[in-house]
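In the design runs reported in the main text, the only information available to the sequence generator was the tokenized backbone. The following block is the verbatim input for one such run; it is reproduced so that readers can re-run the procedure and compare outputs position by position.
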């Protein structure tokens, strides 16, 4: 069954909300010493991955990034990053203290997420498929880990808890993906109009005929 662009955007929003809630619950559970709250947070984060799988497919279906060379590798990197961030929390559902895989695969997943957002930003900048804050959102999401770790995250490792704040790491990416899911839904509405369908078909045909040249139709595309 092929899912529509709007449905993919909706699944992305749901997954993002679960990711934000899960990150917050894990932080709260660790601070107040409630393993059950941490387990619930791990469960939400793991379930978030099921919805967020839709994100790279929604981006491509919405036409964000156009026919840029960066979207294929950006989609694969985004998919792997989402699954690493989500699946690493499955053991913590049953045993909150069992986080042996977290220090290895969790940061790797966040790095992959950051790389993927930067690749999508490059595709968007190249094709001018988004403008305004929507375009710069991808750059901010890609740079978030680099910008916050030295100034905000590093001090958390020297506290008695000896762990970072998941809400600032994973939760921040969840907020970015929530906004991106909303953008996908916005573009799904514009794609349903006859004018948009005609422009999309024309852009696709010209891209196949002139793959080395960005078309004038693609330049004008915006949410």
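Verbatim output:
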């Amino acid at each position: 069954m092929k899912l529509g662009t709007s449905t993919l955007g909706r699944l992305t929003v749901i997954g993002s909300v679960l990711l934000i809630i899960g990150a917050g619950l894990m932080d709260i559970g660790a601070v107040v010493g409630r393993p059950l709250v941490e387990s619930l947070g791990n469960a939400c984060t793991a379930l978030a991955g099921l919805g967020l799988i839709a994100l790279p497919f929604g981006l491509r279906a919405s036409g964000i990034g156009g026919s840029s060379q960066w979207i294929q590798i950006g989609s694969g990197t985004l998919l792997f990053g989402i699954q690493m961030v989500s699946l690493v929390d499955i053991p913590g559902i049953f045993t909150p203290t069992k986080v042996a895989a977290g220090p290895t695969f969790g940061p790797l997943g966040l790095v992959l997420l950051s790389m993927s957002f930067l690749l999508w930003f490059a595709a968007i900048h190249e094709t001018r498929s988004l403008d305004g804050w929507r375009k710069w959102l991808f750059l901010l999401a890609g740079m978030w880990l680099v910008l916050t770790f030295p100034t905000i995250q590093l001090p958390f490792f020297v506290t008695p808890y000896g762990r970072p704040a998941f809400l600032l790491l994973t939760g921040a990416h969840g907020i970015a993906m929530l906004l991106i899911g909303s953008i996908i839904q916005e573009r799904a509405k514009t794609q349903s109009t006859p004018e948009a369908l005609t422009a999309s078909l024309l852009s696709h045909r010209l891209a196949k005929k002139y793959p080395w040249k960005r078309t004038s139709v693609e330049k004008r595309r915006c949410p």
